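Q: Fold this one first, please.
A: Sequence and structure below.
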Amino acid sequence: MKRRVVVTGLGAVTPIGNNVKDFWKSIRAGTAGIGPLTKFDISKYKVKLAAEVKNFQAENYMDAKTARRMEAFSQYAVVAAKEAIQQSEIQMEKEDPYRVGVIIGSGVGSLQAVEREYEKLLSKGPSRVNPLLVPMMISNMASGNVSIQLGAKGKCTDVLTACASGTHSIGDAFRAIQYGDADVMIAGGSENAITSIGVSGFMNMTALTTCEDPVRASIPFDKYRAGFVMGEGAGIIVLEELEHAKKRRVKILAEVVGYGATADAYHITAPLEDGEGSAHAMSLAMKEAGIMPKQIDYINAHGTGTNLNDLAETKAIKLAFGEAAYYIKINSTKSMIGHLLGAAGGVEFIVCVKSILDGFIHQTVGSTETDEECDLDYCIGAPAEQEIIYAMSNSLGFGGHNATLIIRKYEN
């Protein structure tokens, strides 16, 4: 028997708010967090914009020594995890720490650490490279640092599936609770890849937009979309076995009821043109949830703003949902916060939970006109207010990774 899994805590660090309250206020207002790229000299770069986290000082959340031993992607994860744990009212001293686990994905870890220390290697020699380089840069340190900071001693892993990392992390945490490996899981994604080498790589593969208008830079499903905007941040949630949460009498925010994961087995960067792989992930999630396509009220799409992704995802939704695809509200949070890579799925899961709680579906900000093949309801021009019983979140990653989660409005 699979156990029921509920959401009891949310935590976020994003380009439009460094906690869930501020983030969701900005989402409801349709605020875009895209602006001039400030992290390095961009005079030789075609890409001029990014969605950067603003006014974040790690020392406001942890002591300075601890902060210095973490790269930003780990700092973001720790801060968001602490917020999620606080909301969930988990008290570790009352828990069996070996029944509390952590799965937090990061697509690349710290490119900043690699850049910084490689420069030292070239200019000053190998003896000057920071001895903590490796434990600071590797992607599993988001999970590791959260585990250390919170005292969670259960299953602790790092899912790395590029831009699907956050969603796969939540899905794997969901499975861990369903099958009894844990009672509580802290899960999601964290990323901080707005660096000279990171931007150069994406720019030269023509994945990033060169638009210099912040309002029209990230425009998923738009006729004139031309690439994504790099973002950064973290989205962390607390998942809990239902009876464990009820025993604590904590507020239950939503229930996770379906998870689908597939591979395109097609190309290292391009999705299957007909969307079959992603469609199958959606169908698997709906099958596990025990629902029909017409019961999904809202889809938070991967929606990057690249030509290939948006078209393939649209085809995938049509393939998975049939005629019902035309009656579902769809949006892309990346229109406001850019693409958080490995953290995207975690933040977008939070949007799904808050949308269910508020009955509010944000518009795809900045997008104004779709092309003939992107012909679904992407909430362009205005948000929507309606009851949401079932929400779906999609993520796709380089390498052909597809992940889908279904979240349900909680009912006893």
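Q: Good. Now the second chain.
A: Here it is, same layout.
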Amino acid sequence: MIIVIRPDASKEQLTLFKAALEERYNVTVNTWVGVESTVLGLIGDTVQIDEDWVNAQEFVESVKRVQEPYKKANRKFHPDNTVIELPTGQKIGDGSLYIMAGPCSVETEEQINYVARRVKAAGASFLRGGAFKPRTSPYSFQGLKAEGLDLLKGARKETGLPIVTEIMRTSHIDMFESVDIIQVGARNMQNFELLKELGKINKPILLKRGLSSTIEEWIMSAEYIMAGGNEQVILCERGIRTYETATRNTLDLSAVPIIKKLSHLPVIVDPSHATGKAWLVEQMSLAAVAAGADGLMIEVHNDPKHALSDGAQSLTPDQFDRAAKKIFALKKAYDEIVNEQD
């Protein structure tokens, strides 16, 4: 249940009202203070709540029952967009466009440092790279693991780019203490034990959509993290499995505006994993910007033909330079059009 409070309500009225709700109906009351109003989100068995009694309070503006199973990630509970601010200054979800770029797998110090310098020069704000790599085949390269994390940290020290990398298991959380954004991959989207542990830490979590997951299942996975107390969640559309074989996955760009309607969380798009083809990445990146994405995750490798993983979907640094110029130019034009309409 959602209760919208009038902006002229006093703090004392709000405090007494919340206490009465919790005592009468044994529910948990979460409070979100927005720009124009305050919203109370009631979690628990709300069937017995007397709406007439609630509406009778002079400071109550409206009452709505929520059908969706997710509460903390629900825009109805939290009308304003969530903005995730990093210590380095980036604010994901504030209307800006951020690019996370780098190789699928960290391979050598020279490789990751070179790619980091190049993507930063082209406008990327984050360095992405895999240290631990979940692979379909047990015989494929699984990543450098702890050594890969150290190489990422070294590249961050050299370039100043915050790092984004994937976690595989709960026992690795301590190893990721100095990672700027922890990524949960598609295969772990419903690893609920991992999600619950990530809910206990104070660090942004990038949650990728599962291979065959619905949007509601995806948001419910975000709810697991948020229910633990960590509300710094970024959703990442990376393509879903369909009957189509022309691309590696099917990029569901409709998910971007749908997520923004249903949830207040920022959403970015990964066109590299979605298409599996480097020649499609630029076009799908531009389409994601037009769809309203808050950011992009793009794979960039210094020598894709000899990459240890996912070379076919990786741009070269030169290709990324050209793509980034078009991406930022489109974002500027998009913002101008939106501002004119407003």
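Q: Anything worth noting on the second one?
A: The first strand starts at residue 2 and ends at 5.
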